[in-house]
Every structure is written in structure tokens, then in C-alpha cells.
Amino acid sequence: MKPVRKAVFPVAGLGTRFLPATKAVPKEMLPVVDKPLIQYAVDEARAAGIEQMIFVTGRGKAAIEDYFDIPYELQATLNEKGKHDILDLIADTRLAPGHAAFIRQQEPLGLGHAVWCARDLIGDEPFAVLLPDELLWNPASPCLKQMTETYAAKGGNVVSVLEVPEAHTDRYGIVDPGAADGAVTEVRGLVEKPKTNPPSRLAVVGRYILQPEIMELLAKGERGAGNEIQLTDAMAKLIGVQPFHAQTFDGVRHDCGDKAGFIQANVALALERADLADDVRAFLKTL
Length: 287
Ligand code: UTP
Prior knowledge:
CATH topology: Spore Coat Polysaccharide Biosynthesis Protein SpsA, Chain A
Oligomer: single chain
Number of helices: 11
CATH architecture: Alpha-Beta Complex
Structural class: alpha/beta
Strand order of the largest sheet: 5-4-1-6-11-8-12-10-9
Strand content: 15-25%
Low-confidence stretches: none
CATH class: Alpha Beta
Bound molecules: uridine 5'-triphosphate
């Protein structure tokens, strides 16, 4: 079985729910406490042993490329001032030379299309997909690491899922579940944003390990929900052909693509920080 060495970060979406901020700032650069969303996703990928980070960007997303550059002037200034703690912080964000690739999705035709744009960089290897606006928080056992362990045992395709309220199933890709073994459930089917009769309450939450054959299915360019090329529809066609499992995420999910979720993430992560928790908690008590 080939290891998962590459990860795709689709970051070409328009981020309309965060307008007007996203007129000029990519959604993925919005900070939770002091790190941009994209950094949380990259850290999660690194913790799972991913070596090659592939960012699918689009118009107005140049800040993401700049972010992963080395900021020479800033480093020189901090060095002069002896601010070594901040220099270490910046060094932690650096990717190894040649380990970051940027490819453009010229039109936001959907998540499936964004992933397909990375096909030549993926080649014939399994790969991970991480949606950076989903902050899946478990520093001790990051989500993608949990999934690579399941992948090592089962092979094929693995998606991360969480149980959502029935009233929210029309917002997600929903799993039709087969046999369950602890946190791992066989996937018998997948439906994107079911309007009626959801097959379960297990929602796919922004992390995927996929086999390269998905690219041939995405190449057909078939439109699904919202007239977009949906990753879920292509994944559904692999079920029964390749092993397909859902891994229930053990941790806390913050949907940072949504304003309330983004604010909750900031509060929750600030309360975990020794340098911030007391001040933030005291302020919250005044409200
Ligand atoms: P979303 O559904 O959150 O869309 O995409 P969005 O454009 O980012 O945000 P809203 O809904 O307009 O506020 C989920 C993920 O898929 C990427 C997004 O960047 C995000 O990471 N995506 C979506 C693409 O890269 N390309 C697309 O065509 C669509």
C-alpha cells in the first residue's frame, strides 16, 4: 500500500460568507487567535507525515503564497532587535524548499473541480484533501493523523465524519453507513446535501484520503448540487469499487467558513492559551 505523502488544500473559493473582509483577504488567511486558518491545516498535514503541500489557489489569493515565503526583511529586523522568540515562531511556519506547490483554479467551479486541478501533481499516488476553513481541533491526535492510521489498516479511501443534528444534514455530504467498528464505519453510499431522507446523520467534515482514480471521475466534469462539480459525487462512484471508510473524528470541530463558528473557534482556542485565557475569560464574564 502506498503511503499518503501529498495533500491538496483547495483555497480557491470566493468566501462570500466573509464579505466584505474577503474582498481583499483570502478566507484562509483569517486568523484564529494569531495563526491563519491555512497554517492550522498545514500543521495538521505535517503531523500526519505529509511531505508535499499542494495549494489550489485562484484570483485574489496571492497572500497565501506570500505567507509561505521567507520574510527576509522582517527576519533581519527581528534579528537586529534580538527578538529570538518571535523568530522561532516564524521559523515554525516554514515549509521545506520544494515542498509547497501552487496551482490555479481559474474559475470556482466547485470543490471537485479544485481537486481535479491538482491531478498532474498528484500522479498515481493516494493523497489527502484538507479544507482549511474546517478547523478540526485535537492537538494531541490531529484529525488527519487519526485518518492515516485507519488508512494503514484498511487502505482505499477514508473520510472524516461527525454526527450533526438531523436538521443540518442538508448542509453536508452525508454517509450511508454500513458496518461500524469503533470509530470506523464502512461507507455504502454518499449523498451531497440531501434535501429529504438523509441516510444518516454522519456528515463529512473537510478531510479526505483518496485514491488517484478519483481524478478520472472528476475529469468528466459532471455537475451536481448547486451546479458545481462536487467531490462527493465522484467519491460516491468509488464505493464498491475500492475500500471506503468513514472515521468519526475524535476532537472538536469549528466550522470557520461560517461567522459564528469562526468566532467560537477564536474564543475556544484563546481559552486554551496560557497567555490569554485569564483575560478572555474575565472579559466574557462581563458580557
Ligand atoms: P465553501 O463551500 O466554503 O465555499 O468551499 P467558499 O467559496 O470558500 O465560501 P462561501 O461559501 O462563498 O463563503 C469549501 C472549500 O472548497 C474550496 C474553498 O476554498 C473551501 O476551502 N473551493 C470551493 C475551491 O477551492 N474551489 C471552488 O470552486 C469551490
